[in-house]
Amino acid sequence: MAENKQLESKRNQTLVLKAVRQNPGISRIRIAADLGLNRSTITHIVNDLLSRGIVGEVEIPRESKVGGRKPIGLVLEKRNCTIMGIEWQIDFIRYVVLDLSGQVLKEEKVSRRIGKIEELTVLLKQLLQKVQEEVGIPVKGLGIGIPGRVNPHKGIIIQSLPLGLSDFPLADSLEGALRLPVLVENDANCFAWGENLESPSNVRNILCIILEFHNLTDFSLEDQEIGMGLVQNGQVYYGSRYSAGELKGSLIDSLLTEEFLRYLRDNSGIYKASVSPEKDDILDRYFSSLFSALAPIVSTLDPEMIFLGGQFSNFKKMIRDYLNREDIFTKWEFSSRKEYEVSFGSAGHFLAKMFSTPDYEEGVKNLPVFWDSILK
After folding, report:
1. Helix (H) or strand (E) holding 232
2. How does pLDDT run across 270-294, given as a tens digit for each residue?
């Protein structure tokens, strides 16, 4: 009975915090109405959160010109902590730092070959120190996105060919070294978490498609990845074996893919408008074949919105012209995060889990990544 009361109390506290985070300046009265809780319960929860410095009070505009006491709203105290999101690729990492509202405070790419956990750990320690000095707010949580199959609930890399890891407990390894809670996720799923975080609440089904190259000095066939992150009914969908969105095998002819990759290698991976007609033909044939192959998959999933990320952004004009001409997708657009969609999404994944209602399922990794263990 005591355990049930404690769980219900934590659940209500989390719901209040989530409401404050999603609606800065929200009043106690509206929170009570939205959550279906009585005002005395809300007052008790808010007073506790105020005393702990987790939320603060702000004046909010009046709805009418009638005099009286100025209305007071609630906001998260953003200076409590920040969250760092990492994209780990073999030749670089990208990272962003978010405050608790999801605002980007810093973003940077570090070009360095990072093929070992020890190398990653040393670099992350350096970056955490750098962020602390430059932003002035401590990082208290880390999300990391990697190419490959991931069990995000246990923080285990099931298999990542680009990183050469399998059945590896990355979250536990980094938590022990960095003394921070860590969440691990597939890179395309991170992309989906980020877009889900910023999409309107009425958009519940999203498809994120990402094109990545994991070895920029080689561009071999094996180093190309086209991954998909799926949001269904507002939740990232993993499938029964954490393989949802993982496209097995090449979608298009291998000779055409090799021709495309050879072009990228010759042009440093960046599309330039001044390429020859012959090169334009390579790009046109590649993307025509790719999106034609993706069309039935997209049709089957029937998303409300499609986002394109990763290396797709280097070919915006050609892709836009093709998709608008063929009209094979529903509503779509390029990610607004440009090359930081995975790192932003990995931090967004952490925030989503941080402010989710308590989950006491045995073996679930996000249990210690609960707001009251971070905002102490």
Report:
1. strand 224-232
2. 544 444 545 678 888 888 999 999 9
Tokens of 84: 């760092």
> Quick one: tokens of 123?
């670099």
CB 94 within 8 A of CB 107: yes
Gap between the Cα atoms of 173 and 374, Å rounded: 19
Within the chain, strands assigned E span 55-59, 72-76, 82-89, 92-98, 104-111, 139-146, 149-151, 156-160, 165-168, 182-186, 206-213, 224-232, 235-236, 305-310, 332-334
Q: What residues contact residue 261 under an 8 Å CB cut-off, 6+ apart?
A: 213, 219, 220, 221, 224
Residue closest to 356 by CA, chosen among 345, 370, 344, 338: 370
Partners of residue 232 on adjacent β-strands:
235
Lowest mean pLDDT among 21-35, 290-304, 331-345, 360-374: 360-374
Question: What was the pLDDT predicted at 2?
Answer: 53
Kindly state the percentage of the chain with pLDDT values over 70: 86
- pLDDT tens, position by position, 94-152: 999 999 988 999 999 999 999 899 999 999 999 999 999 999 999 999 999 999 999 99
Contact 239, 303 (CB under 8 A): no
Contact predicate 308/209, CB 8 Å: yes
Q: How far is CA 103 from CA 187, 243, 351, in A?
A: 20, 30, 11
